Queue: 4 jobs
Job 1
Amino acid sequence: MKRLLIALALCCSLLAAWAAAAKQPAPEPTSVLARLQKTASGVKTIAGSFVQERHLAMLRKAQTARGRFYFCQPSRIRWEVTEPVRAGFVINGDNGRRWRPGEKPQSFEVSREPVLAVIASQLIAWARCDFATLQRDYGISVLSEEPVSLKLVPSRAAASKFLDHLNITFAPGGQQVRTVEVFEKGGDSTRITFLDTVINGPVEEGLFN
Amino acid sequence: MLPDDRSQVAEDFRLLQKAPFAKKVFIDLEARPGASRETLLATAEQLAGRLKSPYFSRTVCGPADMAGGNITCGLAQMLPSLVSGGDVATMERWLTPEGVRERLRKSYERLFTPEGWASKELIRTDPLGLNVLALGRLRCLNLVPKLRLYGDQFISADGRHTLIVADTPVAMTDSAATERMVQHFGRQVKAVVPESVRASMLSGHLYTLANAVAIKADVSLVLTFSTLGIAALFLIFLRSLPGLFAFLVPFSALAVATVAAAAFYGTLSAMTVGFGGVLLGISVDYAVLVYLGLRSRSGSPAEVLSDISPPVLFGGLTTLAAFTPLLLSVLPGHRQLAFFSMAGIVAALLISLFVLPQALSSAPVERGATASGTRHPRLPSRVVVAVWLVLIGVCAWQATRVEFDGRLRSLSLIPDRLARAEDDFAHTWGGARGKAVAFTRGASPEEALQANARLYDYLAARLKTDEIVSLAPILPPASRQEASRERWAAFWQSEAGKRAVAALLDEGRALGFSEGAFEPFLRLVRHPPAISTEMLSTVGLGELADSMVVRDGRATLAMTLLPDTPAVAALFHPEAGPPPGTRLVSQSRFQEEVSAAIQHDFVRFLVLAVAANLLLLAVLYRDWRKALCALVPVVTGLVVMLGVMGLAGLDFNLFNIAATVLIIGLAVDYGIFMVSKLSGGYDHATERAVLLCGLTTLAGFGSLALAKHPAMHSIGVSVILGICAAVPAALLVIPALYRGEPGE
């Protein structure tokens, strides 16, 4: 369950970063985060694609997947892998639906699915750039100002057993996140590259049913 | 007020204290409308962090705090020690080469999903998804049915509550420390809990505190009211300065009783101290009779003392005899109360017979001091006796409706807010606190687990498995675990197992898994570990295991939690054939046992008290008719008390036993005083003395009836009923019976 934080950080941090695209990098973490949060306050929807590469010791080669993600205020999330398998989940408040390869879609209550519950809470926190909440789980520092790059180190003992740190890098200009890298204890890592992101564009309601 | 002997009741009460969560403190935080879940959970973390020594030794907000781990990984590691023959057959069916390929592909694809982030170690340990064979066993660990998880914190099914479970070094019986603990909790709540969140605490300690607070308040009320009542009666009836000497006798007796009881027992319960007000009312009787007799001028002081000393002495002895059986009670509270009362009565007797006459002899006789007792018109004897018989008959009939009440609730005060808090907790989290507990005992942990497993087998065949909370499905005894591991090893050494491993490695290479990817799984295949409580700790089940398998002296107890219902209780009846060495304990069964103990004690005390009084009356009068006359107030008081209780639908509880003893001891005094007066042919203001004695007793017990604590209130009401009937019986019925005696 602790590794869920790895997943959540990946999925959610991007959303927050885009939503809070900074116009001018600030010299200090507090001002950078504040600027990001201010920008995020105007975000109502996010939609985009991603490419996920996992470098795991248990695999001989990197595992690559592609997918789509959607976010809609206040707490609706859709994250789905489209290649090479179709899998994903939708969370809409306290309820959700997930699908896995070879299985029928299943509905669930978020409170009964601790893994997805944490993913959802972190997703939403990142989408809103709720750094007050995020700073409970991570120590956040600024690696560079242009492009903006943040380093997140887990502060909770349970997560820090498995997760070493996260790096979130914005595209030049800081308007969107380019990559999220998750570094696990033991050497495994995951890199997610984001493409074609649209802020405040139309998002079908049916995507969250 | 619960047994401290080796009786089954005492043993069951001791076992009840060992039940899981019996000594835990539960803190429920509720998000009010408008409060977010994040605020709720953050508040819980902050509050938990501030609850510290010396009042709280450990706080837990979720399984992560309990040295948690991955439960599904843990189940995979435990599976070899759990597999049944049926599980092995299922593995043979699942793990064909095609089945292995399909299962491994699913595991590989799972790595792509967001949940796959949490599955890496599980896939290495259990690439074929065999942990589901053990998953069903977790149903038997559902101790808090409505508990869910949100992240690493407890949350209710409706998402509006979170839970902190705390350990405390404060003993449940220590009301002073409990009060400090509650104050500490209140300060921390004020410091960190916002208006949008409501925090409440629930534990057995709060009941102790509520009772202690109520008893302290009641003791003050009782002592004040009884003192003022007796003082008022003295002013009304005596109206003389020397009367002050008589007024001081019960207070002197109370002081002696308190010192003697404190010296013998060390500490006095508040109940005993509260009974001091009653002792005032009892012990004043002797002083009143002596005082009124000496002040009546119906003879010389020596003559008066000669007449009234025997009834006073025997009155005291009969009261002492009535209290003596309480010294044999299994309840320490009863024994202390009896010692306290008897010490006070002895002191009152000695002071009344030896000190008071000396004090009065030096006091001037006031003008107008009455020489006679109360005058009242004589009622026709037959009418009086007839009315009395009818009253006895009706009350005896109603008395058959009285039921014995052994409920724990009637022994202590349960404030409405606590009762509501219990109901709210059960509604939010499920009935974790109200379950019955079945104990199995073993000389060693292994023996206890063997007995526990036999009990589980017995119960699983008769109840739904989700009604049983037991460690047996995931922590079998070592012998059963070994048998399971042999089955596991036999499968993997068979042709089917070898083909499965080969298929796993081949398909793994094809999918891109590295050479050592499944090494944790292969270690399980070759060298499966035994399940221990330490292993359970690594997967977050250690806290539960520790609470359900405990040391008890040199033995080990294993516990199974069950619904507290008659159907479950019937399974443990000897005729149902439960496994030997099991014992079911629950609140409802405890109530039945206490109820049976009450009835047994009641009969024993009543028989002993009446027998002792009969013996003393026989020694005093050597005439069975006089002895029976002296018992008229006793019979009347008891029958009317029970009759009115039956009519009013009041139940008979532990404290009514004490009241019954008191009525016997007091009412027989009135009978002795009246019979001695009528048979001795003297009139030393006896009737006035009996009336005043009755009224002072009512002043003492009347104050108890005002108490909020159910125990004190119960004694007060029942003694008032008895004495209100005993006094008129002494003043009216005894003379009527005497006037009807031939030759009198």
Job 2
Amino acid sequence: MGNKDKRILWLLNHTTLREFEVPLLRSLGFEVYTSKLGVHDKGFRNGSADYSLDDHLTIPREAIQCLNEYNFYMSEMPWQVKKIINTYFGTAIIAGYTKLFVNLSAHFEGQLLIRAFGQLAPMTYAEAFSSSLKNQFEIFIKSMSEKKIWLAYAYKSIIEDEPPYLKNASVYLPIGVPEHFFKNTDSWTGEVRSIFFVCPNILELEYYENIYKNFKKNFADLPHLIGGIQVAEVSDPLVLGKISREEFNQHLKTCRVMFYHSEEPKHLHYHPIEAMIFGMPVVFMAKGVLGSFDNPKNQPGACRTIREARNKIKRILNDDWDFIRSIQSAQKKLIEPFTAAYNKDIWQKNLAQGILQISPAKPLLKKTVSKRIAVFLPHSSRDDSLNAAKSIAKMLLLGSRERGQPVEVVFSCLANTYNCQQEFSDLIEMEIGIRETTWQVVSRQSVQDIIFANMGSATRAAFFQPLAYDEYCLPCDKMTNFSDCDLWLIVSDKLVKPIAPIKSFGMVVYDYLQRYNRNLNLDFQLINHNFLEHARMAQFILTTTPQTQQDCIQYAGVAADKVLLTPINFDPGFDEEPVLSGEDNYFIWPTNVEQHKNHEAAIAALCYYYEHLQGTLNVVMTGDETENFNLKKSVTLDRPYVHTVRSMLEKNKFILKNRLKIAGELSQHQYISTLAAAKFLWNPTKIDNLTFLVVEAAYYGVPSLASDYPQMQYMNNYFNLNLTFSTSDNFKQIAAQLKAMELGYADQIKLLPSKEFLKQWSYQKCAGSFYDTIENFL
Amino acid sequence: MKKLAIYIAYHPPVSLNEDGLGRYLSFMLQGAAQNGYPILIAMPSWTLKSLKILLADNKISLKDIELLTPGKLPIGLRVYDFLKNIKKNKSKKINPFLVGLKSCLRHLTRLIKFYLHPKFVLSHMLIQRNIALIMVESIGLAILSPVLLLLWIIKVLCKLLITGLSKVLPRFTPYRYLTEIISRVIANSPMNEAKISSFIQHTFRVMYKKETDALVKKLNNRDDILGCIVPTLFWPEIKDIKHKKITICPDIIFFDFPSIFQGYRLTYEKISQTVAASDQLVCHSEHVKQNHLLKNFLLSSQQITVIKHAPSVVENFLDLHRKFSVHSTVEKRDICLQILQLYQKQQLFHNLYLYNFDFSNTRFIFYASQLRPHKNIFNLIDMYEILLRKRYVNVKLILTGRFDYSQDVYNYIAERGLQEDVISLPSLPTETLAALYYLALCTVNPSFFEGGFPFTFTEAYSVGTPSIMSAIPVTLEEVQDKPLREVMLFDPYNVNDMADKVEWGINHREQLFLLQKPLFERFSQRSWADVAKEYFQKFSDDHTAQSDLFPSEASNSLKNPLLI
């Protein structure tokens, strides 16, 4: 067994159980990690954490810290935790909580033992899990090709009614009491002539309320005291409520007799055993677990009926010392199964030399076949998104090679949209396969069927997740529909239907501009919810700026650990010397027709710049569809916003005449030439995602004036651009900054980074660090 | 020891748990319990359930509290409750007898329908293999044939009638005809909608009057009452209570903002009558005493006492098996997130945006309050928009008022496209409220007016969260320290000032928390036991001197001059 097989995750938080089982496991040669965060619930009264146990672990402190801060019972497992538990641990023993089971069975590669120490009859563990996981539980256990999930039962009665599929996957690990319980062996004095009854949570849990009521019904006339932790104060003076451990022990020592009510065949409380250790006579019901440890005929404390119990208790209260002594001596036999010595052998045989030997956890094998990643561009784009998607594909390929774990990359583009040989020649050259893809809409049932048929570790997490939508989309490539790929990476979050969760998939999110604009379109808001929901479904999200990363968490509601920040790569699409045209008395304003580009404030600023600040530089507007702003041309885009901007231009046409030139959409070559001759670049947008305009300008020796928003600040620092900033909403201030640029652009040029400096962010150079960000999800 | 009575007389649907008064009441009861004062709560029968929930939610034991109601619930309300419970338990409780009966009836109708179609009977017989079976069936059919024949004739006749009628009246369909008849009958009968509503209102009025009369009578029959506290100004029937009455006046808000509250004439009259019927008045700030009471009613200064709030703390609601304070920061956060997740699962499952929103790392500012006009919600939203869209402060704004009761607020948010960022989590159990206070970056209280120093401050502070508040009389009265004023108080009319202070508070959370420590400590010196004591003393001190202080003609002078 390797080191990993010698480590056990013990995820139960039960105080008394921990005090017994952790030392036992350690004595068997295991190293044990115990979970810290528990369930905030009235029923979790025995839960606690013991941080001192961490000192015995030989795994890095940071790993322990990370595990300690994760609540195994409640939240989705972050990839960091997944990595740690699969790296360092071979076995996990867990409490029978659904979420805990789902989390571990989905993400943990080692042996999983569900600790069964008492389900309330008549419910079985199989029924309990099935009630929350439907028939998925049974299918899941049966589908395990090698035995990895076990029901570790504490009493033999637990397993009796379980169905065969769970019986076959069970192991007997009896329960004991901690060593310190034996400190008080035979210290009972019994001078207080009273029954000691233990019943916690009387006002919180109906189950205990009934036990309390039944006890009161049957024994109220006899002297008694009621122990057990109460959250709410019970108005009965005989209920002790919050008392210290010492006081509790004092009652065990002095009260004459304990009555243990339980007739549950599968669950036993600790207190009767504690009482027996003290030497206190315990009158109990023979139908319960205690009755199964020894023949009730040999146990004078065992009773079949309440009447019998009352009689026995009365005899004890009435000083029948012979009877007391007979109970005391007989119940010694009941304590024995709870000692460490008794348990150790069984655990050794059934666990250490048993199931852990049959199928020891395999080390995480590095797949000999290289992994395959599919990069999807689900839109027909020929602009920045296409370039970004291509860069991602290239970086994955090169980065994985650089890190010595070469992966295969395939690129998915929309079918019948591109001339693949030409438009993807750069990818094809690098042996990145191009797959033309159609996005098919499939029903929930089909997705369910695919998941059932393909229960690999990738879909195990999806297996227990309810499919919330009626329809999903599935990429079809007329081959295997990308099921041959290990990871899907979608370069967009704007999908009309959610992606069928049949593979691990990540998403690239560039921005949430909708959050920063007053978008009044109600239809959009509905679709927007879908976009946000899709992001929540992804295993991870790649973002390029901290602002978008935060938006993803605060706005899209994605768990923070899933949102990653990738390095930014910059590749000038065109590396020839630009041809400069004659005129150069202008600055360039690259834009498009979207509202966030802030045309209204920009035009107002321009007018102010020319009218009041005697601006001398002309302005050249370029960009997709900006011809629509040209008053001499007719509109091709019938959008209200285009008309608003046009009317504004119309109103100011005398000021802007001969000064604003709308060049429209330019080829890359033309654009670079226009840019290179400009005095500076102007980017007056409200807020935008990462825009490479300013980096490109710097590359060609042109300084920039840009609006001040977080992404732009990030870009400025990242590439050391020394940008000049302005506000985006105060036109006078913008105009003043334009004037300042007009006067000082020459000084700004000196502050620009060199071409060589900028070249260090080429995709080739960023590939390694880009690959590192997603490596954990492969 | 004589008992201190508290008189409550809300109309039936009001739940004490969602009302500010409910919280004040629970604090008072806690304070009284600490002092060992015996309390009697007199209320209409319909409030009993809600009060018990309030007490349980606030972990108040019923040991020293007597609950007095005039009797059982009126029949009308019992029927209403019964109907409501049937609706609620429909899916839960299944009566096997009823289920069996229903299924029998279903089978029987299916069978009769089947045998009324000769072609079904025929084909059914033709596909059988066993002749004996067909014989038996035929005999059975023969015996039942008169009944079947009769049914068949009725069916045919009905069909003929309908076909015939539809020929005479071309647009005739039986259902439309029926609904038309029914609607005509209803319109002409005494049961139309307006009449029903007026009938219900009338019944409620009579029921209320009868209930409160009986309650007052029951109260008057008791001679173990020291005096009676009336927690609001809306119940003029207290004039008939013979015990000494101290009425609490949290505020009379429309004196400060006459135009934002409309249609308050009736309320105004009730208030004036209640004021006139009271022996003493208590308010929680000097401002209310001076500007709401002394300015508007003929009252002397001695007739009004200012009893300030003690701090409302919520930390104890997060205690479970162990005290919340003993947990580590990681554990505390985890506990609060679990509580929030539970609320999300139970209350937000229908919310498309929030049902699976991951709150674990959500940064938000918080305002726990109803959305009443003087709470300055619109400026709060404007301020938030500035923070998010101009200053790029990446946080959310969480409110607790119900948007469905305040459509104007929701529209205001929607017009700005802020529905995903300005969210409301209504009907919060106290535990969840406490958890949200803990998780918030800071609380913001933008209110134009508060009757006493807002509870939001101490509630947040008790779980480690600082507050930013509006500079209004009650806050200026308490926050005397200038440097503290500068960082924690803003001008509620100036959104930029508000944004400045909130942004600073978010970025300097720890510093602000430390700065507010002396204020919190000063508030903490006062407890609800002190508050209860002050009320108690008010009765004991003046008990003998009552007649001197309140001569019979003096009580007439309490009437509002405007009404005379």
Job 3
Amino acid sequence: MTCRNLRQPRQAEILIVGVGNADRGDDGVGLAVASALSDEQLDGVHIHLVNGDCLPLLAFWQQVELVIIIDAVQSGAKPGTIYRLDASHQPLPQSMIGSSSHSFGLGQTVELGRTLQQLPRHLIIYGVEGYRFEVGGTLSVEVAQALPEVTSRIRFEMKGWRGKCTNTRRQS
Amino acid sequence: MSRRTIKVDYLARVEGEGALYIRIQDDQVKDVKLKIFEPPRFFEALLRQRSYQEAPDITARICGICPVAYQMSAVHAMEDAFGVQIPAPIRALRRLLYCGEWIESHALHVFMLHAPDFLGYPDAIQMAKDHAQIVERALRIKKAGNAIVTLVGGREIHPINVRVGGFYKMPSKRELDDLAEQLKPIRDEALETVRWTGSLPIPEFDRDYEFVALQHPHEYPFNEGRLVSNRGLDISVHDYDETFTELHVEHSNALHSVLKARGAYFVGPLARYNLNADQLSPLPRATAVEVGLPHPCRNPFQSIVVRSLEILYACDEALRIIAEYELPDTPAVDIEPHAAVGYACTEAPRGILYHRYELDAQGLIVDAKIVPPTSQNQKTIEDDLYEYVRPNVHLAKDDLTWKCEQAVRNYDPCISCATHFLKLDLQRDIS
């Protein structure tokens, strides 16, 4: 698994954050998606992997226009189900806050950022439904099969966002 | 006799999750069980047949909050096995790295996980609505700790710069001087944090514990020393297995570590402070007196003050190390692997972390034993809960639940080292 070295992203670039634990089965899906996108070496896209502590994101994403986060979720839905949440302007569902197995979890970090007015302008969270989280486990078949779809949706999201940015600049 | 079972979904704000069961019958506490569901031995098995060189990187994966602690115990155990003495600059840099992790981990716990309890908030998010400046201070302090670990540990997702014998790359004097400029105002913020936690309303609680920590003749302990206690324990780390044992408790998969001679013991900041306060630098020593922190301190609720004090000490120590730093000739010493057994204890933020490795002639790991600080505190946490619940049995369900959570959080248990889910199951039997 490779990723670019951690460095502060410049303003107006895209930040992709994979959150999870590669040693806990489906909890590694966020890292797997982010690593796959990292391997593509997309222009103007920074990739960051997080395991155990999401709080540093509050400082890290300050200058970034679009942040896309990928993490595993557990809601009881069919494994491999893909969720997209726009966390830019609306609080996350209560069930997402404190449900992570990480330290100060993703949901808590996002809502803390909202309280402190430290969220990026655009924050999109992709969740992939998992069901196997035992230590030492690998991604379940259902979650592994969802990887190409999640990756594709994120690429499409970035393309659409960049298109909107270009149009906005032309109009101004 | 009627029964009521009260369940809370999870014990909030413990890093990772765990499980707590309490049974009360006719207003008497009958049973307390801290339940932990996840087998802790996956990584010990993973280490077998791996090279000694891989131990720091594999064990760093055990805990997302304290990877440095696992790396330090791993490299020191391997160096113990091979009879390696690391030179002073490498030794100093390892202390600096540990300072960074203490600052990060303690700041996370003090502000984001523990302080809400004392101020009456359900979580740090609610606390931030009224105390934004306090939370912003927490983030600044934590960021400084992270900066130390990133510079010295070379962190991407886990620190990657640590190896048996030293490091892969040493930071330059210039990089360290820049770090020092970042740390100086943080030390001031850490000082204010001790004063702030020292003013929080602290519940009364006192038990006669056996505190266990490393002790070194010249420094507040990180990586080296003998294992001592306030009841006369004074052993080499090599004698750990003869002195301590792990009991597999039926309801828990994270083994309860006990002293063979005397049972439960207490590791972590309170133990370090009680056994090593005279080795603190002058500033934290004076600040402890200023805020009225007793010595010895036997109230686990005052651990929030002690952790704040250790953040202050770590800032002070980091600045001292940087000021005295000399670049070594080589980032690491040579290692000649051979068949051996190596032992080490280092002081993770939560307490002593024990590693033992048996190696073959090629330096491959034959067997590994890892005892996290959380499993060493398990029995003590359970015993605390038994005592803490007793005078509070008449509280309403939600209040009692919250009190138990607060008592568990005193120990900053890194449940993710040992388990996955924590649920509170309170069974109240009434005649």
Job 4
Amino acid sequence: MSKGFSLRGWAPVLPAALLAVGVNTFMGPCGHGGRCDHAGLVLTLLGIGMAAASLAAMLLGGKIPRMALYAAVALAGAAAFLTPGTLVAICGMDTMSCRMVMRPAAMVLSALIVLSAGINVWMEWKKGK
Amino acid sequence: MKFYDLPKRNLARKPGRTGALMALTAFLALAVFGGSVIVMALRSGLGSLEARLGADIIAVPSVAASKVSLKNMYLQGTVGAYYMDAEKLEKIRAVEGVEKAAPQVFLASLKADCCSARIQVIGFDPGEDFTIQPWIAHSYGQALRNQELVVGSNITSGVGDSIRIYDVSCPVVARLAPTGTGLDTAVYCNMDTVRLLLRAAEEKGVRHEITSGNVDTMISAVYVKVRDGYDVQRVNTAINRVRGVTPTRTRSMITDVSDGLAGVSSAVTALIAVVWGLAFIILLIVFSMMIHERKREFAVLRVVGMSRRGLSRMIRAESAMIGLAGGVIGVLAGCAVIFPFNTLIEQTLNLPYLLPGWGPILLLAALTLLLSLLIGPAASAHAARRLSRVDPGTILREGN
């Protein structure tokens, strides 16, 4: 079984970890128990899940399990992209921290995750063709 | 084999070096594209502020002028509510040189829960107004009826939604285009609506400092248009003699903002120039070292039949590919920072900030890519020229 510790393997891990940590620190919602805090919680859980799944993909051998994990990470990334404001409601003013910082940061990081996980799925599929 | 196959393979052989060079050109492209978009947005915002102010002079109650900054209301959307008796309006109209004087009434809403915010409510008289009406007319061509609201672009409620202010439900009939100023967080209504909301506020126990007059007769500000041929400063001084009123020339507000903008613009331009200067020197050094390191490889290519010109073209193609790829990454990174975080940049700069349209942005992106495409060949030209003049036999015999 071969292990895939490589730059492209780490590519989805880092933004996912940054998403989970960031939403609870410098790019989070206001923290007063409003609906945007629910969005923050969902993003935290998704971030942790995506980081764990990407790490697991690096540790696992086998083309199919890795492809499945990266595909799951890509889907979770898409969910994270849609979470603030679409799947989970956030505050009503553009100048509030959930709209000004959390939402754009989540969108950029989840776009990176979807892109890197998608590339990993393709690279794994190409291997051994 | 196609012409670009060999440069592509050469770059793929050394992923670390290629990646580092691409990162450098990406940083250059980010500096140019991002810095230029910010400067363009600041200029757009200043133009928008000038257009939206509309009036030559804004007169507010003297007691408020010391507590509330009118400039902050326009730049940051700071919520303000202050009042004076409507008789001040008549006194201002009587000042020589005043062509038009239109009243407005301000009201600050409450913050209901953590996910709501205080918003500025601005009531205007459609029959007399000359600052808000022309702007609203772009988005809503009908007269505002009682309780109807027109909202600024940063208010997320859309047409058909309702906003509850002091428990009065007000339907939203239009949403204004962004202005890049604090006016984007305000809502607009007619005088009857704002007076209704003031009464509703008083019923809820929210007291507003109406020191003279009553809800039906007081106003918050008077917007003044000076007649042609009259000096704005003199009219401003004359209005200042009206007791209890402090006038502000809008030109001075715009000049302050313009000075701030000039400072930011100079800083960004200087930063871009320094970054490009340094990066060009770095690229010059790196390409020289790279070409020197590969001279035996180039000598072999010359021996097997590649012409001097072909060798030079190959080197220029490699550096152009690095530049273009780095440029694309830099422009995309710039887009990922500038557009999603637009509101954060606006709030941080504390200046009017209005992103330009897609046309200028696409043109700027294209120019940035062109610069990135050219910087690589420019940096490698000298070293490539020197190498092509050296005898390949001499290079291959070196070290034997």
